[in-house]
Write a structure and sequence with these properties.
This protein is of the alpha+beta class. It is built from 4 helices and 6 strands, in the order E-E-E-H-E-E-H-H-E-H.
């Protein structure tokens, strides 16, 4: 798969990141309707911030995301927006999340640049997480 480049007002970029984060205490709460709604929220936040989701897999106890982000906006700001918005909406829509956890997400997350790893291989890895 060939890498594409994007532009904003003054830069041309291709900044793709693999991001992983977990619910507090790594509780397996990202299932069924919560999983479906989380996918929608992540997609909405990414679209609003002009980021492109390249791959996503939601496991019961963690989230894998391959995302392209404008470097002037920054991956840290995107992750903060996704985690903040999803925590607010999911805890509002699914009351059991409020009773099971003091907060939905841990404060930490993992992020790595895709670098020279073929994007197709990374996408396949993320998409096959549930089948491992």
């Amino acid at each position: 798969m060939e890498r594409t480049y994007h532009t904003n007002n003054n830069i041309v970029f291709s900044c793709i990141y693999h991001v992983i984060w977990c619910p507090k205490y790594r509780r397996p709460v990202l299932i069924d309707e919560v999983d479906k709604r989380l996918r929608q929220i992540i997609g909405d936040v990414a679209a609003k911030l002009q980021s492109e989701i390249q791959g996503m897999e939601i496991m019961p106890d963690h989230v894998h995301l391959v995302v392209e982000v404008d470097p002037q906006y920054g991956v840290h700001r995107l992750v903060k927006q996704i985690k903040g918005r999803s925590s607010h909406l999911l805890r509002q829509e699914f009351p059991h999340l409020r009773t099971q956890l003091p907060t939905l997400w841990t404060n930490s997350y993992f992020v790595s640049t895709v670098g020279d790893a073929p994007l197709a291989i990374l996408k396949q890895y993320v998409e096959n997480q549930k089948h491992v």
